[in-house]
UniProtKB/TrEMBL annotation:
GO molecular function term, any single one: DNA-directed DNA polymerase activity
Organism expressing this protein natively: Mesorhizobium escarrei
Family statement: Belongs to the DNA polymerase type-Y family.
Keyword Transmembrane: no
Protein name stated in the entry: DNA-directed DNA polymerase
Amino acid sequence: MAAASYEARKFGVRSAMPSVTAKRKCPDLIFVPHRFDAYRADSQQIHKIFAEHTPLIEPLSLDEAYLDVTENLQGIPVATTIAEMIRMKIKAETSLTASAGVSYNKFLSKLASDQNKPDGLFVTTPKMGPAFVEELPVGKFHGVGPATTTKMNQLGIETGRDLRDQSLAFLQQHFGKAGAFYYWIARDVDERPVRADRIRKSVGAEDTFSEDVFTLEAARAALEPLIEKVWRYCEDRSIRGRTVTMKVKYADFQQITRSHTALGPIGKQGEINHLVDALLDPLFPVGKGIRLLGVSLSSLGESSPDAGDQLRLQI
């Protein structure tokens, strides 16, 4: 399953969940085939609307981006006004609803965008920012996944206030390099600029499961939508990569990665599937459950006209 509607989520259905599990949670579930051509067309239209207001657009996915409207093209002084205009135009031109978050840094704007989904607007001002972060459960923080949430909860960290009360040394001890990120976002500090020209070193997708995965078949099913997501991102931006990396995190939080680099740019989604299968198969049978799986593509570059016609798999 590639995605779950808001209605399905009420039954515990999540993105990338095996269809058998999803059907068990919601017997009346209806499966709808994807229409990626339509998704891409809508995404291009939405990004055109973004570009009417600012050239500083940092895409995150087909339907999500950061916009810096500090100095916008229409000279509108209030960011909230721009957000409302964008939402209205998306609705008028695509018939799609859109949620927006307005704030003074990336971290808070991302949190704000999640507050009133699927069709809303939320604003976090500098005055309300610290209190907003303090009261929020850490599981709601962008960048804190289910597994990290569980670990934080076990350490007595339930909310942003609890996270802020921890020292930098404590967070780095328990979360490694990510500790510094958690330390600063708990203080609503995020100085990352919106970078329209950022060069990605890799493209990846991962999912943490509500139930541990033990079989090869279930792992393959969970990886399929992640591979699809990575490939669509590359297709939409005409980029290709040479190195496929699979990430595995077990129930005891042990994490491993397995990688393979092809002789040339990978030109078809099927090649990624083949490589991931070759990386996955040797891990089974497993002695402990798998909590998370991820796939990434690196060694990125622009695609050539004949990239899709060349098969370069050396296993």
